[in-house]
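@channel sequence for tomorrow's demo:
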Amino acid sequence: MSTSRTIRVTVRGSFDNLSDAQKAELIAAGDQHADILSVQYTAEGHLTYDLAARPFFTFRFGETVDDEREVPQVTARAEAKAAAWMTGRGYAFKKLTSQTVDLSEVPLGKRGRKLQG
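structure tokens (generated this afternoon):
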């Protein structure tokens, strides 16, 4: 019996050597990327940043796998998608890091245990 696992990957990095025009473009589009209250984990990746405050960005990716051995590939794909998004738009970046969480391994809180039992 296989059980699906929901994997969330958070990829972080910092913008590097942006031109004034690129900064202006990102700041102008910032409204659609600054709301941390509407954060989503999606297959395409959900980008957040607040360039006016700091030069960092965060992508959030979500994927479902059937085998825990697929988790490293999910992480690699997320990092590649984030890098491709940045590179495809001509934005230089540095210090790309990622954190991966397998939600099947996250302990349930008191409320979750109550709902489950």
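heads up for whoever presents: The mean pLDDT is 87.
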